[in-house]
Amino acid sequence: MQPNLQRLIEQGVVWQGQTKAEQTTGYVKTGFSKLDELLGGGWQTPGLHEWQLTGPFSEQRLLLPLAQQAIEQGLAVFWVNPPAQLSAAGLHYHGLGDAMHIVVEAKQSDACWALEQILRTKNTMAFAWLSQKETTASNVRRWYKAAESGQTGIVITEFSHNLEARPYSNRLKVRLTEGGFALDILKRKSGWPVENIELK
Predict the structure, then answer these.
(1) Each residue's pLDDT tens digit in the chain (200 positions)?
(2) Are 16 and 132 in contact (CB under 8 A)?
(3) DSSP tag of 188
């Protein structure tokens, strides 16, 4: 491969097309009918999704419905570097108690490797809290490719002004509001970006 083309691919400016037929995509409901409609049915699965947070713990309203559905489907739920310790009482309170939960706590580079391995494992769903520094185009491509085997992964990170392309299925910016929370869809497969979507 030409060095210049390889460099563009590594920067995420160019993404190689598939050489085989696309796998049939299903959807997991988001828990919000308005968001399901905007995303063309919900979270694509298999798929890799990015949630950029403007404040701590603003992801919970999106995370809980997804984790509950994973448990209903009998999936193991992986928590990679969660921002707080999981507790049995808290999981039970949110209806997440009857499932296998695996917590991975590791330095960021090891967490990136762990996420790839999890996404290669059948019958799993992964939530990973990673810094923008680690969500390089090459890392995201590896995670996306790993998820294609049938898994759903969520990368939760801080907000970034970097508009460099990344092969996520969806990219969202999430923020809390007085009445609930709002988000911007930075990237979606079913249409153009959309801003300021209020959800309750």
Answers:
(1) 677 766 666 555 555 554 443 445 699 999 999 999 999 999 999 999 999 998 888 899 999 999 999 999 999 999 999 999 988 898 989 888 888 999 999 999 999 999 999 999 999 999 999 999 999 999 999 999 999 999 999 999 999 887 778 999 999 999 988 888 999 999 998 889 999 999 98
(2) no
(3) B
Query: 157 to each of 21, 53, 97, 160, how far by Cα in Å?
Result: 31, 6, 25, 9
Residue in this structure with the two tokens 């969202």, named with its chain if needed: 172
0.90 exceeded by the pTM? no
Secondary structure class of 112 (helix, strand, coil) = helix
Give the chain's end-to-end CA distance (angstroms, integer).
49
Cα–Cα dist 23/167, whole Å:
16
Amino acid (one-letter) located at 134: E
**CA 168 to mean position of chain CA atoms:** 8
- Among 182, 134, 142, which residue's Cα sits nearest to residue 160? 134
**H or E element in which residue 128 lies:** strand 124-129
Residue with tokens 């911007």, as numbered in its chain = 184
Closest CA to 163 of 12, 4, 14, 6: 12
